[in-house]
Amino acid sequence: MLMDERGRFKDQKVVAAPVKSQRGQDEQKLKPQQSPLFQGWGENLSDEDQEEAQALFEKYGYNVFLSDRLPLNRELPETRESKCLQKKYPKDLPSIAVVLIYLDEALSIIKRAICSIINRTPEHLLREIILVDDHSSNDDLKGDLDVYIKSIEAQNPLFRMVRVRHVESLGLTQARISGWRAATADVVAILDAHIEVHKEWAEPLLTRIKADRTVVVSPVFDRVNYYDLDVVHYVPAAHAFDWALWCMYESFRPEWYHLNDTSLPGKSPSVMGIMVVDRKFLGEIGALDGGMKVYGGENVELGVRVWLCGGSIEVVPCSKIAHIERNHKPYAPDLSMSMKRNALRAAEIWMDEYKHNVNIAWNIPIKDHGIDIGDVSERKKLREKLKCKPFKWYLDNVYPQLDTWDNILAYGGMKNLDANICIDQGLFPGHTPIAFDCFNYGPQVTPYNTVSYCCS
Predict the structure, then answer these.
(1) Which of 251, 310, 334, 454 is deepest in the core (most CB within 10 A)?
(2) Backbone φ, ψ for residue 101 (5° rounding)
(3) Is pLDDT above 70 for 182?
(4) Does Metal-binding count among this protein's keywords (predicted)?
(5) Which residues pair with residue 218 across a beta bridge?
(6) How confident is the model at residue 406 (pLDDT cuts 50, 70, 90)?
C-alpha cells in the first residue's frame, strides 16, 4: 500500500514507508518495556542494557545500542529487481561526490554510511565524500570522527574526505547547499547520513545522468527498521506530495506499468530529499532555495522547479539505498511551523493561481496569515531568467493526479469544544470521517464545495 509522511494509505499499487505521524508526539519518558524500541527487539537484554538502549533511543530516534555492536561493513540483503542484476554499466561514467548531511547523528551510523559508500562505489568514480555537520553538539562527532576520517584517508588516498562544519545550525536546505558548494566531482549525490548504499547503487544513476545531464535522479529507498536495523525491501514508486507539501509515495504513471519492466526508471513529480544530479546543472537552475528554513518543503520546491525549468526527475529502480526511518526526530519534535512557512514560500514562487491551495491544506487564512516567508524577489527573477513554464503545465503534464480543488467554496475545521476533538478524514482521503485529537491542518481541514463534499 501507498503511504504518505503522516502514515496515510493512499494507493494499492506500491509498498511504501510507515512513517511517524505528525499529529503530535508523546514527550513523556517511557519505561523500557513500554517503548516502541522493545516491541520487536531486545527482550533478552538485561535491565541495565535496556535502560542504556532506551536512553540512546530517546536521544537519536533509532537503535544506537544495536548499531554500536554491528559491523560497519555488514552485508545488506539483495533487494534489487531481478533484471537489475543482469545489467552492465559502462566504466566511462561521470565522477561522483557523495554529501552526507547530519545533525547530532550517532557516530556508528555515520561510520557505517561512509564504509558502505567506499566499499560499494567503484574507486575510479568516487572522487570525494563530503560530511556536512549542521552544528552538532555531540563530542564524539568531533575528535572520534576526525580520527576515523584520518584512518580512511590513509587507506584511500585516491579520493578526498571533506569536513564542512556550520558554526550555527542553518537547517537542512543550507546544509545541502554547503555540501554542493564543496563538491568538485561531475555529479553530486546529496544523502542523509543515516543510510547504507547497496551494491551498484551509483552506476545506474550515473548512467542516466551521462545520457541526460538535466535529469535529477533518485534511488529507491529500502527501509531500515529503527528498532532492529533490519532492511525491509521497498518496491519502486514515484515521489509525490499533497497540497501541504508533505512528501508521499505515489504510483508511477500508467505508461511505466505498461512497459512491464520494473527495472526501468520512472518519471517522478518530485524528489524526497535524497537526490543525485549533475553538479553544474544544479547550479544553473538555482541550486536549492536558501530561503527555506530548518526542514520541509525544499525538496518539493526543487522538484517543481526542475520540471518547470527544463529538467526532469526520475526514480531509478536498479539503484538502492537503505535508509533508517526514525521513530522520532529529536532535533525538531514539531516540524509543522517550518513546514508551513516553507510550503507558503514555495507556493508563492511557483504555484501561480493554485498557491492558495497550500493555505487551505494548512488551514491558514489566504490574507493576513502573519507568516513571514522571507524575500522571494530573487527566486521570482530566477524563474523569469530560466523562462520556466506555468504551474498549470506541471499539473497537466507531470502530476495530473493532484486534485486542483477547483470547486471549494470555504474551508476550516470542525471542533467539539467540550471534548477538544476534531473531525478527521481518517486513514486516507475518502475514508469515513473520525474524531481525533485536534492539530488543525491537512486531514482535519474541512472544505465545503459545490458538490457538498465535506472532509478532504
Answers:
(1) 251
(2) -100, 135
(3) yes
(4) no
(5) 315
(6) confident
Give me the domains of the chain, ranges plus CATH numbers: 82-324 (3.90.550.10), 407-456 (no CATH)
Q: What does the angle CA 146 – CA 150 – CA 155 come to, to the nearest 5 degrees?
A: 150
250 has pLDDT over 90:
yes
pLDDT tier, 32 (very low <50, low <70, confident <90, very high otherwise): low
Q: Which of 303, 280, 284 lies closest to 351 in space, CA to CA?
A: 303
Burial code of 371-395, b = ≥16 C-beta within 10 A, e = fewer? eebbebeebeebbeeeebbebeebb
Share of the chain above pLDDT 90, in %: 73
Model pLDDT, residue 433: 85
pLDDT digits (tens, 9 = 90+) for 47-98: 999 999 999 999 999 999 999 999 999 999 999 999 999 999 999 999 999 9
> Where are any strands of DSSP class E within 193-342?
195-197, 215-224, 231-232, 238-241, 247-250, 266-267, 275-278, 312-324
Q: Tell me the sheet residues that pair with 9.
A: 3
Give 390-442 as a DSSP string. PHHHHHHHT-TTS---TTEEE----EETTTTEEEE--SSTTSPPEEEE---SG
The x, y and z cell numbers of residue 340, run together, are 508551513
pLDDT, averaged across the chain:
89
* H-type alpha helices, 197-291: 202-211, 254-258, 279-284
- Residue 81 CA to residue 242 CA, distance in Å, equals 29
Quick check: 187 and 279 in contact, CB under 8 A? yes
Instruction: Report which of 8, 62, 6 is spatially closest to residue 35, judged by C-alpha positions.
Output: 62
Q: For 74-87, how does the pLDDT look when each residue is reduced to its tens digit (9 = 90+)?
A: 999 999 999 999 99
Distance separating alpha carbons of residues 135 and 115, to the nearest angstrom:
23
- What kind and span of H or E run contains 311? none
Q: CA of 240: how far to CAs of 116, 243, 354, in Å? A: 28, 10, 17
The DSSP bridge pattern shows strands 421-424 and 415-416 to be: antiparallel
Q: Tell me what pLDDT residue 416 has.
A: 87
End-to-end CA distance of the chain: 20
